[in-house]
Description:
There is one protein chain. Helices cover 52% and strands 16% of the residues. The protein has 126 residues and is an alpha+beta fold. It has a domain at 42-125. Strands 1-2 form a two-stranded antiparallel ribbon. The longest helix is centred in the middle third of the chain and has 27 residues, at 44-70. The radius of gyration is 20 Å and the shape is elongated.
Amino acid sequence: MTADFLFARSLIVVRSVRTIKKTGQTSTESRYYLSSCWPAEHGPERWLALIRGHWGGVEVRNHWRRDAVQGENRSRSRHANLLANVALIRSALLALLAHHHPDQPLPQLREQFHSRPRPCLNLLNS
């Protein structure tokens, strides 16, 4: 099997089996991951820990913060370019907030900047 990724050295398949307790119905789902590590570099438990750690970090660092603080999932738009551009702006804003206000929680910053355009513009111009 080949992948069109220059540094792909491993293809990892994670199969999850799920049983619904109420109905007893079982389903299996396969998810595929590419890695730049060689297959023998890690055993199955370590591969699974790396995958879980990666996705847990992505969820906490990006998706959760953009949704919980900025309401990203409430968007009703389905225009791919618009959603991608707004996601970039939201990520840039989170980076600016983390840089200029590292010790303040995001919900507190949101309240602080709410309906106060001057500090918001100053932050964006920094």
